[in-house]
Recover the amino acids of this structure.
């Protein structure tokens, strides 16, 4: 039995039993954030808050949703939308948040790429971030199945067919994933389970790892400057806050973070109340029908770029290109051979690489939305080739880069 | 001691994984193959009929005399012939990623809207990305009736000729 003094305050009582003061010191009061950063560094917090919003709105949807092929469509489009008090609010919040979260993830990713925040000790932050991206993609896809509309059904058909691995014709695997020859009851039930339980648990674990991976390397800064955190923290602690290059995460930095979050939330609720249409595909307001394909099948906007990489090629090559696009960002810290962890603007060829990559992804996204005909096919084809070429060029141009 | 513990735990883990795999398998009730019967005598030439078999759409297309006259051997080999009538009977799912192609009765071909693939009136792929012809489901003919889900002599003949992979 360890020795315990009688606590003089509630805080002390908890500190004796949980070490809350140590936790607070290590994770907040003495977790140092460089001053030389900008609003893009608040995107991580915006993501954390958006995930919270998804969780809360999801819990309310869950109370009336019916994971049954005969009932699902009406439980969403009739019960939740028309009968449940403020049910429409949860649905619009959930749909808009699921779409906007990808916009923020992409901004967050490209901030990391621009400032080189994926190397020199930050590799695990990057990899856990990419795992979060994959988990969020799976979460978005499984959630998209639930209303059991036409787009749910046909997206489910097309995406599960990817697992036949092209000419390998592994149809058994596809049927195993679906639990049926076509998406049906077993399919809806298991994707429901994934969406509301298994994937959210994985996401929570990954967020924990992502934050843990940040603690020792600390966040990067606008100049890629290597900061001696001990020295700067000492200045801060001794009261010389103006001269110190860092501030404490709580409460100083949190106040700034939360300001950006507040601006984001104004924008977010504007979308929820006045412009939610973009997050709800009109085709998905028709109930699932296995005998009619919609005229155009396209995924939500955030998957368009990788879908467009699949589309212009023959089946097998398309699948290989698609698989390449899905995993290649994981390898960024290892394909970038340059030791410079500074903004792209100071890295010569890499600066060009960064902007061409960004524009290429936007072009792929736009072409993915358009029907696969004529000039659009050609532009999509070229953009897909550019994407692949950029990744082949990356190790070469970063190897040539001068050490700063 | 450690090894013995590891071995027991390993056996348990493999067993658990197997149970999980089996729980995701299609249920016996799902697998018990359904049979679908189609009366071909009601078909109208150049008008696509879509039947349902095991949840999948089945294309049944009776061809006009002009269409038959213009066909190659490869196209003829995929037709079901009853008397003088030629029928195309295929699973109506694109061999690329499984959308349902639409029949264009003026051009006598199929267009898949998902990624722009095309098939002729015998189900042979004519434009990528689909890598292979539409699939011919197991069928049996008795008189003018088509039974899907059963392998009749005509189906076996196509299989022997290498038309059905
Ligand atoms: C919903 C998912 C995510 C959440 C909740 C999240 C949260 C955070 C937070 C709170 C930070 C610290 C503040 C900041 O620098 O913005 C951060 C940093 C970072 N994240 Fe994420 N993140 C997510 C997804 C991703 C993804 C998809 C990537 C890219 C693969 C990524 C890569 C990074 C990197 C490289 C940093 C370090 C930035 C720096 O050092 O300047 N994260 N994340
Ligand atoms: S599913 Fe038909 S072309 Fe892709």
């Amino acid at each position: 039995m360890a020795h315990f003094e009688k606590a003089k305050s509630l805080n002390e009582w908890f500190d004796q039993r949980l070490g809350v003061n140590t936790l607070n010191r290590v994770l907040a009061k003495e977790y140092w954030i460089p001053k030389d950063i900008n609003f893009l560094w608040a995107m991580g917090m915006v993501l954390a808050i958006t995930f919270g919003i998804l969780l809360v709105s999801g819990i309310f949807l869950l109370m009336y949703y019916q994971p049954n092929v005969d009932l699902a469509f009406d439980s969403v489009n009739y019960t939740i939308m028309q009968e449940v008090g403020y049910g429409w609010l949860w649905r619009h919040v959930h749909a808009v948040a699921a779409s906007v979260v990808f916009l923020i993830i992409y901004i967050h990713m490209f901030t990391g790429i621009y400032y080189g925040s994926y190397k020199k000790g930050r590799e695990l932050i990057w990899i856990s971030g990419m795992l979060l991206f994959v988990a969020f993609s799976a979460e978005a896809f499984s959630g998209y199945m639930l209303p059991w509309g036409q787009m749910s059904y046909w997206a489910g058909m097309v995406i599960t067919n990817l697992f036949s691995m092209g000419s390998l014709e592994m149809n058994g695997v596809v049927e195993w994933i679906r639990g049926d020859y076509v998406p049906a009851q077993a399919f809806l039930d298991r994707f429901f389970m994934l969406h509301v339980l298994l994937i959210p648990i994985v996401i929570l674990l990954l967020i924990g790892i992502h934050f843990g991976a940040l603690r020792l390397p600390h966040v990067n800064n606008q100049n890629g400057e290597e900061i001696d955190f001990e020295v700067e923290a000492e200045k801060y602690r001794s009261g010389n806050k103006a001269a110190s290059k860092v501030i404490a995460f709580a409460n100083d930095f949190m106040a700034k973070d939360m300001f950006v979050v507040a601006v984001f939330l104004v924008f977010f609720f504007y979308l929820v109340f006045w412009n939610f249409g973009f997050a709800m595909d009109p085709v998905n307001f028709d109930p699932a029908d296995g005998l009619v394909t919609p005229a155009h099948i396209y995924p939500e906007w955030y998957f368009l770029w990788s879908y467009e990489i699949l589309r212009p090629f023959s089946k097998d090559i398309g699948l290989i290109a698609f698989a390449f696009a899905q995993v290649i960002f994981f390898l960024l810290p290892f394909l970038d051979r340059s030791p410079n962890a500074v903004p792209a603007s100071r890295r010569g060829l890499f600066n060009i690489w960064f902007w061409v990559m960004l524009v290429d992804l936007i072009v792929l996204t736009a072409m993915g939305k358009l029907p696969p005909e004529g000039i659009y096919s050609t532009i999509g084809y070229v953009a897909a080739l550019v994407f692949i070429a950029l990744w082949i060029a990356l190790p070469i141009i970063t190897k040539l880069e001068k050490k700063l | 001691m450690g090894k013995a513990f590891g071995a027991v735990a390993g056996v348990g883990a493999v067993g658990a994984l197997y149970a999980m795999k089996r729980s995701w398998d299609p249920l016996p009730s799902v697998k018990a193959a359904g049979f679908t019967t189609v009366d071909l005598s009601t078909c109208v030439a150049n008008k696509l009929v879509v039947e349902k078999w095991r949840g999948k759409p089945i294309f049944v297309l009776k061809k006009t005399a002009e269409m038959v006259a213009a066909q190659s051997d490869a196209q003829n080999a995929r037709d079901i012939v009853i008397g003088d009538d030629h029928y195309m009977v295929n699973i109506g799912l694109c061999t690329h990623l499984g959308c349902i192609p639409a029949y264009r009765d003026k051009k006598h071909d199929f267009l898949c809207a998902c990624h722009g693939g095309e098939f002729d009136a015998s189900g042979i792929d004519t434009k990528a990305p689909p890598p292979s012809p539409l699939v011919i489901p197991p069928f049996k003919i008795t008189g003018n009736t088509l039974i899907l889900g059963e392998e009749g002599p005509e189906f076996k003949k196509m299989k022997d000729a290498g038309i059905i992979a």
Notes: The first strand of chain B starts at residue 36 and ends at 39. Chain B is about 25% helix and 30% strand.
